[in-house]
Amino acid sequence: QLRLVESGGGLVQPGGSLRLSCAASGFTLDYYVIGWFRQAPGKEREGVSCISRSGSSTNYADSVKGRFTISRDNGKNTVYLQMNSLKPEDTAVYYCAAGPRESLLRHWYGYWGQGTQVTVSS
């Protein structure tokens, strides 16, 4: 069974950092582009970042450029999202997803994790 499991979310103060992990089971992650998405209450799910199969290419939403870094360790079948200088508006449930194409658009991703909550508040 193909599964993606996110971890690393939590409560952090503004300006703080978190590192999210996305671990795959039941399939080899390096066959797929991996994207991170987030959904805040009452808002649409939006693309945050994605990384190519090899890790050589990355993309970021304008709202997180310079603050978030996506990376992958195919040997560990895991993708990471390092989030620095967090702001209250980063509060959301964060999801990782696997798909065939580098894109921040949801419809390119067919496999999704269950999400992890990130709350940025003082």
Task: Quickly list its features.
122 residues, mainly beta, seven-stranded mixed sheet, four-stranded antiparallel sheet, 48% strand
Structure classification: mainly beta
Name the helicity range.
under 10%
Q: Roughly what is the average pLDDT, rounded to an integer? A: 96
The biggest beta sheet, please? 7 strands, mixed
The fraction of residues in strands falls at over 45%
Whole-Å distance between the termini?
A: 40 Å
Count of strand segments: 11
The multimeric state of the shown protein is single chain
Large-scale geometry: globular
Word description of this protein:
The protein has 122 residues and is an all-beta fold. The chain is 0% helix and 48% strand. The chain is built from no helices and eleven strands. Strands 2, 4, 5, 6, 9, 10 and 11 form a seven-stranded mixed sheet that branches. The chain has a four-stranded antiparallel sheet with strand order 1-3-8-7, with no helix packed on it. Strand 4 and strand 5 form a beta hairpin.
